[in-house]
Batch of 4 targets.
Target 1
Amino acid sequence: MEKHRDTYPIDIAGVHRELPLFEIKPGLRIAILNILGDVELVDACAKALAEKLEGLPIDVIVTAESKSIPIAHALSSVLGKPYIVLRKEYKPYMGEAIKAETLSITTGKPQILFLDEKDHELMHGKNVLILDDVISTGSTLQGMRLIAEKAGARVAGEASILTEGDRAEWMQIISLGHLPVFFD
């Protein structure tokens, strides 16, 4: 038997989606945007974000593992700029990685972001665009800012497909839309 799940309807970059609502703590639900495998939505979002980023001095795009990788790849292709993925687990081949701790709303656990040693030079002294799929609490965003600072990069801008919740600082984020949070 299939369970009925409430959804939140949204149009993003001309593409309609019904985002499933998930309870993340008692009495609080959020709409989940999962772009993994959604080529139509990712391509449309990359083109729309590229238009909004026009004129911003970007040398490299930086994102965190893992749901935002498709938008980073697509935006990289549209803008003709390289991208870096900050990993959430250290691997020996990453050498002398730079790290910063963050807390994800979807996992509710502390996570550490790692900048692979090979990517340090790609960021050092460069203008970076920090990119995420959805910015909710800002913790991952803060972790990416810390990595950029430690790597000697300048944050030229911050972008996401969507922002979420009622945070005044989200007005500074270049995004394609906004999601409310749902209180039961």
Note: Residues 57 and 172 are 16 Å apart (CA to CA).
Target 2
Amino acid sequence: MSEKHHEELPEIIRRKVDQRLQGAREKPGVLFLGLGLFGTVGWTIALPAVLGTFLGRWLDTLYPGSISWTLTGLLLGLAGGCFVAWRWLERQRGVKQ
């Protein structure tokens, strides 16, 4: 390594450290915010799907037939959960703008 590269290395390191410190000041907890958002959306979709499946399974025991109430409950719960999550995300996006 030449002498010029030895002189540039501390400057490069200082700039990188400054960039990271500035990023930490500007965006505190972005990682945790993203994980929280991911968890909220996941539960918003998963819970209605699971509840719909259990309801459908119960209906299958009461009314057996050609219609699979378990599958119907799963799909309705999944669709409802996706709709609720989408609406919630749209409201969150509107608040931040």
Note: Residues 83 and 95 are 19 Å apart (CA to CA).
Target 3
Amino acid sequence: MTRRTIVPAALRPVYDQWHFAPAVVANGFVFCSGIVGTSIDGEAPDLAGPGALAGAKRSADANAPLAALVAVRDPQAQFATAFEALRAILAEAGATLGDIVELTSYHVDIGTHMGIFIKVRDLYLADPYPAWTAIGVSELIVPGGLVELRAVAAAPK
């Protein structure tokens, strides 16, 4: 089996400090770790640039506590930031959101935010849609996080 660890430069501190890969390519698939929409200050980042990964990078700087992770406060912006971060991780592996074959989303207060989540999801994922499982949870590792996305994508040939 060939295996390649995917660590975008902005997430190198996460890999070094917390010892997990944002993604691993193996057996023709890209396995992405869960990602929450974070920013430096809880405001929506500039998603046109590398902003979607900026919060994770800052919070994983040397010896930063878990509390340094800041979820984007606006639910719609948080969901978009999570999808943009997932897009950036997949891009580092040479894949796109269109290559996702399975998406698992973990939701805090699933009933309250599901409508907004689906609207945002549909901005990022198109037909043919991946398999999708939505799971309600009591909390996420990032305080204030409302959704965590985990995906499996087909690796580019």
Note: The first strand starts at residue 3 and ends at 6.
Target 4
Amino acid sequence: MTVGNPTSLIVRFCLPLMAGNLFQQFYNMVDSMIVGRFVGTSALSAVGSVGAINFLVIGSVIGLCSGFAIPVSQSFGAGDTKRMHRFIANMIYLACAIGLVVTLATFFGCRTLLRLLHTPNDIFADAYTYISIIFLGIPATIFYNSLASVIRAVGDSKTPLYFLVFSSFVNIGLDFLFVLAFGMGVKGVAIATVIAQALSGILELLYLHRNFPILHLRAEDMHPDLNLSKKLLYAALPMALQFSITGVGSVMLQSCVNELGSGIIAAITIAGKTQLILVLPAETIGLTMATYCGQNLGAKRLDRITRGMKNSTFMAFIYAAVAMLINRFLTRYMLMLFVKGTETAVLQYGTRYLHTAMWFYPILVVIFVLRNSLQGMGFSIHAMLAGAFELAARGIMGYAFVRRFGFDAACFANPVAWAAADVFLIPMTVYVLRRFKKDPTYLKQRTEIAYE
């Protein structure tokens, strides 16, 4: 991504990644559709009540895997294949160790977490069953996402898509089998998700070994290297912490929302699922910028970084307008994919939630582009700080407003958090780009920090 038209490269890289993320969200949506329509609104509320903690843990794990790939991307952009291999080897060691610790900690602590979330008693059992299985499947999540991140780091976003499509269909098929045929309820949905990711990861590894010789490791690459491990953690932990910080804010907000009752929990759950699909193309543009900026940082191409950021922001704004139109006219039909038309209260609450949030989509897409661009340029800590602004905003909205004003305040909680993140990200990005332009030695220093 260091040669050629930036816009064309971003679009070509983005489209397969977008398709993959759409498939991933689609099979997550199918989980909720099957639960909502064939198990019941109560079960849907149970799954939704743990959405924040699920995002906190699984999102952090995925962020960790994506962060590990940044030094790989930078080494590839600099043409240093040997160093790239050594990064991948140390990435494997770190992923295994962190995966084991996180799996054990979350599985044995999930009952306590559910109590802290004020999970209603009528859905507590289903919520615990679902999230405990998902936590046991964390190694499968790390396995698949680590492989996918490394392949994307060398500029190939198509191969992970193929395996994600496969995983999606496996997950959907197992959902129908476990829930409809075997009557396993939320347990079946969780088990299907874990099996699908594990199987996809295994097949992806076999395909990588056969078709990606540039990623083959040799015995001399496998030696643990403390210095390289530190660099991997320097890139990965801020991204994981970014999800964690955002997730903690979501957990704080979720604990307040859970006090509003299972009906509102169900409404916000299906509205949130719908919104993820609506904004996902813009989010994918942002994810593309992490790889784009990482490779061009390694090649010391500030001109390409600046041009790519401007063009990607423009594309994200265009899509935000499209998402707002879709939201305005098709909301009820999208929500009815999850619940029956007779669930009038749930549909009304869900519609109000989405129609409030849609006016703030232009603010949200700026976060996607700027945060990922800063991460790709090696400013992971700065990107993480934006999450701290989101955390503070969600905490304030939850405890100061949702508990006092109820559902109406909950509709504005995320938009306020998005605005808070932009308050930090916009001036920080302007500062970084201006300093790069005025002081060429600073670009060289940042490149050396990220690469040496």
Note: Residues 6-451 form one domain.
